[in-house]
Amino acid sequence: MPVESAEIRRAALFAALPEPVCAALASIAVRVHHTAGEVIFLEGDPSPGLYVLLSGRVRLSRISSGGREQVLHIVAPGQHFNSVPVFDGGPCPVNASAQSDVAALLFPGESLRILILDHPVVALRLLADSCRYLRRLVNLVDDLALTTVQGRLARLLLTQAEEGEAGIVQPLTQSEMAARLGTVREMIGRSLKTFEGMGLIRIERGVIVIVDRAGLERESERA
Description:
The chain is built from 9 helices and 10 strands.
């Protein structure tokens, strides 16, 4: 079944584009599906193109020579990823894996580059979003270099709590927390025990409940 313009507009990147541009994008888009845990591509692989996520979650990360993973971003529905190779023609800069079953639209790199020549507004949208992503990476570098593990963990717990029920942190394993925060699982475990001892959180059957939000916010601001 051909991709429709309405599907193109589900991407925040393309939502406000004129109908002829959305129709052109739909003409080159390919539907792809990946199951939970499946590797979509690895750092250094030839780039398949630009992905727009329709459903599910995709984890973008880099892995050190020692095997430590640093999560760079969790892609949500409506967002896109792997835009850099569209412009430089190089390989994939990160690893991408499906955190859940995933449905996405794939815009092959060469086809998208040809389309951009006729519709430069697409390039402007991609460049603006790439700049926003670069700012996020700069903030991540700041966090890793200038903020303690406890401060980064406090911020992550607060963010996860905002996505679920009041006061309840959306579930993440200690290994997943460590990957997001650029540290090791043992440090996460010690920091959680410290927060619990300070009365900031309560851990009940593996579920983290924020008890003192203001106190946790103070910890998140510590350098």
